[in-house]
Amino acid sequence: MPSFEFACVGDNCIDRFGAPLHQALVGGNALNVAVQLARHKEESAYFGAVGRDKDGDLTLKTLNENHVSNVHIQRLDAPTAYTNLSFTPDGDRIIDFEDFGASGEYRPNSAELDILRRMRHVHIGWLKDGGATKQFLRQHNVFVSQDLGVNAAPEDKDPTGLSLAFDSAGDSKADARTRVHELIDLGAQRAVVTCGMEGSVGYDGNNWAEAGINPVEIIDTTGAGDSFAAGVIAALHKGKNLQQSLEQGRDWAAITCCHPGGFPQ
């Protein structure tokens, strides 16, 4: 198989929204990034796992409908991951329950790793493998990004050697700058940290950059951070500087806030 520009590895899930949306939509950090890249005419691949159930069928169908170029899905004897979401009276989104299901059991196999090592850029979402995949890819000089904010275990959040580390830091740009410093000190080559309504902060080893947000009428913020990451990744590989890349991420995230879920379905 020829090498692709981008591959995304890790989580997918079914986002089950309660009132007022009452919808079940395909999502997950790694899958959302792959779809957003494809929707913006970038050649992308997705690697993950679903169950042998209707939600797994829906996930595969949705990836194909959104023109993700190569889909490498393991079908496991576990349910497709899902998340139950509700909203406060003020419209804030609450995660009521998560079942990681097949995504929680997913590890790229040797054949998949052989494909991934030939990718130009691999983005890792939620992936519980003790950091094995990113360690393997670093050994093969692949540009690797990871969203550390969606992972929980320390071994899965280690930024050492990452080409680009994404994270989040509440609603404070001061806290975001502090977190960027921490990620660089821990071994990330570049770091970008979002800070809610305050925007984002990044450092690429030479230059700092900051971006605000695009004010929009928010329908749902699910997947906005994933769209932001996809925008930054695509811009960097088009030769844009860090400031321009944060601005593209901001613009892609704003679009996502205008509809339910991480992308239109």
From TrEMBL:
It comes from the Bacteria. Keywords: Kinase, Transferase. Pfam families: PfkB. The keyword Transferase applies. InterPro entries: Carboh/pur_kinase_PfkB_CS, PfkB_Carbo_kinase, PfkB_dom, Ribokinase-like. One of its GO terms (molecular function) is kinase activity. Residues 26-102, 165-261 form the Carbohydrate kinase PfkB domain. Belongs to the carbohydrate kinase PfkB family. This is Fructoselysine 6-kinase. It comes from Maritalea mobilis.
